[in-house]
Amino acid sequence: MKKKIRCAIYTRKSSEEGLDQDFNSLDAQREACAAYITSQKAEGWVLLPEQYDDGGVSGGTLKRPALQRLLADLDAGHVDQIVVYKIDRLSRSLSDFAKIVDRLDEAGASFVSVTQSFNTATSMGRLTLNMLLSFAQFEREVTAERIRDKIAASKRKGLWMGGSVPLGYDPDGRTLVINTAEAKTIRRIYDLYTEHGTVREVKEQAAILGLRTKQRVTKTGKTQGGIPFDRGHLYRILSNPIYAGKIRHHKKVFEGQHPAIIEPYIWEKVQNKLTAVSAKVRGQSNVAHPSPLAGKLFDETGDRLTPSHTNKNGRRMRYYISRRLVIDKSNKHPDAWRLPAPQLEQAIAQAVRERLISHGILPNLVENLKANEADHLGKKINILARMFTSQNPVQNWNAVIAKANISPGMLTIELDASAIAKYLDLPPERLNPDALTINTPCQLRRRGVETKLVLGNTPPEVDLTLIRNIVKAMEWYGAVKSGKSFTQIAVNAGVNTDRVRSVMDLAFLAPDIIEQMIIGTLPLHVTSDYLIRTGVPSDWNAQRKMLENVGTRSVR
User: pTM (2 decimals)?
Assistant: First the structure.
């Protein structure tokens, strides 16, 4: 006798359109799934009576009422198999779907798509699943790109594309009309800036004059706005080209179809003044970029990390780098570190703060702790911990750090006994030396040129860009096998032929390497750009050797 397989049907529709009809999309999905379950009756499939329908809910989130009920029933052991019309009904997110598959595995259950046949119990089935999900995500992103392109085209024509209506205007279809009363406020703000020359002065004068922000009534009847201007709001008004009759789209400005409140030549004069003031402030702030932890940071070889910087788009980017990179610039030090200074400083602050607020820190830190001093010292520890919040500059707490060692997978911080004792108003000998050392796991996350030190044991990281490029490579390779030329493929894809040739190499990666990619265990350096730049060997063993060589180098 066949084992009974209890099947639950899950249906979803992103929009609410048509849900009020007698027979809607959810009904159609359920009918197709029910028919499929009936066809598998000989295999022991049985349809559960409970209905799990999410109408008007996006597949980009797991926070769906019916889905949460279904997952709860799955965890409780009431469901053996989830049946959906298409896999994107369950989720459009690759990471979310991985979470659902994990819960299915834990419950000893599985799922079936009635329009897409594969077996998730095998590695190749999981690869197929992830590729289908990648296409679903790709389709969603293409739709988003089309919408963005439509908005960009409309703004080039000077049309108002919705959003928060700026003070001084009222909406009128795809354009704006001047709100006479509010326009007086806008003109007054520009006059004040022309007169006083600073946003701070404008804020003070606007408060004296009783100028207020735009007042709005929400759909629920709640009133918002109508409050005094802050400096940020005033700056946005003074720099917004919409008041000169223009429309901004990202960094470009186009002639609008709405009337101007401020004469364009006045608006340009204000922009020149704003730019001059901003440049002066930047010049003052760039005079010194201290690296307060200099001399206290070391790598696993004992080499000191020294401050360094680069200038990018007018901004000064600070780093801590292994000293051997400064002494020998031959770039022959794959084990050397080069870390963004603000992120490293924040990671150290986070680790220290978590230690200071951890349960039982006081009796562990202070030897021979007396009952009558516990409350007093506990308050001092809490005050000290608050110094290590992200809002506090490093200069406020760097004296507490004696030394920090950074090695692959571990951040070790030694606190300064005399500094801690001073904050607690205790003699240094009363502090337990072992409690002054903090060992916290850490990992580096790197994509392209960006590197970030992350505390804790982070889960594997899946490179969705690499997945999408491999899907493209397999699609293009299939087109070549069907007789299409590189030029035809390039024209259809909107890229050049060199791009097609370079990306297509990804279609020949070994199956085990692709599986590593799906579960996120590839070395962090192995990105699409890395594989395309270095080239993919045709021999699978050569590919594995190449990745082993990458894996032996720590991510720096």
Answer: 0.39
